[in-house]
Amino acid sequence: MVNGMNNIQEKKVKYIMDSKELLAFIKQHSENPLELLVETLNDFKNEKGFEQDLLTPGFLKEWQVSELLGHICHKTKHGADATNQEGTENYEYLSCKDGGSFQLDRIHEGNLHRIERNTKFFFALYDKENGLKCSKIWEVDAAVVLAEAKVKIAKMKESSNHIGFSKDWVETNGIVVYS
Asked: In CATH terms, is domain 52-178 a member of 3.40.210.10?
């Protein structure tokens, strides 16, 4: 007996609103639903301690991938995209929609440290129809990415500074860590 009650515990059911219900609610109660949604997401970002602008290219997908994999997403835009929970490994995330290729931008022989600073790369594939839905993530050792990057850099035009990794390359060289 606890507090004079039987050993029956009250179960509380917590209802969680889905995105369509939230949107309907916001439309009913806001003159500018887009502004409210973006401000809300920005407030959530700030609560989590992130310093960069919400709309920094790639940030939202990096945050999403880190949540899916249980990593710690970077709080600024400097350095690796994420670390493991202990902070002892650095990770880089590349993403694309199904049918595309995973791009590493602004890379050349003079800044290979952007690859070398990482322990692993994670290649996140997003649904072609719903670009917010991550369907699969592969893990590839940074040394393997570095070796392939050197081959690609040697073959690319000087003006390019972008290299791509195909889904086939990722499937051959990586292991699936999320699906």
From this structure: yes
